[in-house]
Amino acid sequence: MLQLFSVRELLVFPSGENATDVLINGIHFNRTALDFFNYTLYSNGTLSNSSNCYLTFDVYQPSMTTNGTFINGTSCYDPYYGISQRGSTGIGFACLFTATIMFTLINLRKHGRLFLPSEKRFRAIGRRWQWYWMLFVAACGMISDITGIDVDRDYLQSTAIVLQSFFYYLMIPGILATVWEAVRHWGSWQERQIYDLDPFSLPQNDRRGKKQLYLPLVFYLFAWLYFFMTIPRTWTDIEYQRSLQQQNRLAKPAATDNRFKAAGIFAFLAWCTICYSLQQSIHHYKPKNRGAFNSTIGLLRHTPTKFIIAIPLLLISVGYAIASSFVWDISPLKYNVMVGWMYGLGQGPIFLILLVFEVWGYIDQNEDRVLLEQRAERGRSIDTELGLAKKPGWWSKLSGGHHLTMEQRLASMTGEIGGGRATGKNLERTIELGNMPAARPLSAEDNPFGDDASSAESDRRLVLSMTDSDEQSGRAMSERTMSTVASRPQEIRSMLDI
Description:
Blueprint: H1 2-6, E1 10-11, E2 21-24, E3 27-30, H2 31-36, E4 40-42, E5 46-48, E6 53-55, E7 63-64, E8 70-71, H3 85-112, H4 124-153, H5 159-197, H6 207-230, H7 236-239, H8 244-255, H9 258-285, H10 292-302, H11 305-324, H12 339-363, H13 367-386, H14 395-398, H15 406-416, H16 421-434, E9 459-467, E10 479-487
Antiparallel strand pairs: 1-4, 2-3, 4-5, 5-6, 7-8, 9-10
Helix pairs in contact: 3-4, 3-12, 4-5, 4-12, 5-6, 5-9, 5-11, 6-9, 9-11, 11-12
C-alpha cells in the first residue's frame, strides 16, 4: 500500500495497434476519446480525469465507449485493501464507546432522578449535563472509529479520512465539557450541603457567587472558540493524500495551519479554567489550611479521586491536540499515522475519562437521597440532645385504631372532642342559658342611682315569640312574629348597672 502511494507520476499512454489506439492492461481504448474527456494514466494504476477515477491493474479491466461511459469500471475510492491496524484498533474502541453509552444511560437515570422538590438555586439539569456530554463524546468516538475502517480499505483516500477526523475533533470540546460539568457540579453539590444546613451562610451576591457566575462563561468561551477553529473549515485538502507529493503539498499545510494551532491553545486555556474552578470549590467549601505547603496538601486531600485521574488524562489529550497541530507525522489527519499516537494519546485518554466517571457514577449515591439521610441524621442528633426517644414500631399497635379506615378514624376523633350525646347536652345547656330572662330593673326605692320615670314614658322592646303555623296550609312550619311589650326603659348610669 505504501509503495503505491510513494510515487504517483503521469504516464504516457501505451501504444496500441495504431496511432489512435491505446492498450491499458490488455484493454483497447480510443486515444481521441481519452484526450477529449481529459483522462490521464498514473503510475499507481489509476485512470482519472479529476471527476472520475478507475482502477486499471490486475483484474480491474474497464473499457470506455466513445461517449465517455465506462463499462466494468471500479472506482479508485472503493475498498481494495484489508483492514489494517488503524481499522482493527478502531473497531475495538468503537465497541468500548458503544458500551459506555449503556452505562451512561443507567447513571443518568440514577443521578438525574428527583426525590426532593426542585429548587431554583440547584436545578436538576445541573447534575445531568455531565452525562449528556458523555453520551455525545461516546457517539462521536463510535462514529469516528467505525469510519476508520474505510481509511485502511480504500485504495485512494476520500470521505472516510474526513469523517474520522471530523468526529475526532468534535470529541475534544465534548470531553472538555464533560470534565468541566463534573467539576462544576461537584462544587455545586458541596454548596448545596452547606446551604441545606444553613441557608444564610452562602449568599449569592458575594465574590464567590460572582465567580460561579462568570467561570462557566469563560470556559464555554474557550470551548466554543476551539470548536469554531477546527470544525467549520474546508476539509477537502485532507483527502489529497494519494501520493507523497500531494500529501506534502496539500494535506500537511491544511493539518498544521494556524487555526489548528490556535484551537490547541484554546483547549489548554479551557483545561486551566477547569483546574481553577476545582481549586475555588475546595477553597470555599472545604476546611482551609494556612501556608503554601499545607494548602497544596489540603488541595490534594480534598480533591476527589476521580478528578485526580481524569484531569491529567484530559491534559494528555489536549497536549496531543497541540502537538499534532505542529508535527505532521503524529497528526490524526495523516492516513498512515502510527496507531499508537492516535489511539494512545488521542482517543485512549478520552475513553479512560469516560470509564472513570462511569465507575464513580455507579459508586456514588443520588444526591437527594444523601440529603435525606443527612437530614434524618441531624433530626436524630437533635432528638438525642432534647432527650426524646423514638417510639418503637409496636407502639402504634397498642394505641388501637391502626385497623380502622380513614372515615372511621375521623368519626372516632369527632367523638373524642365533643360529638354525639355530649354535643346534645351542650346544646341544651346553651338553650337554657339563652332563655334566661334579662335583669329586671330595680324599683326607685331599691335603686339609689335610678331616676323617677313617668308612667307615660315607655319604650317598646322587641321580643321574639313563636306562633303555630296555619292549620289550613297543612305545612309543618313555624313563623316568628314580632310583638311589642311595653316595659320600663333602663338607663345605665354606671358600670355597676351592667
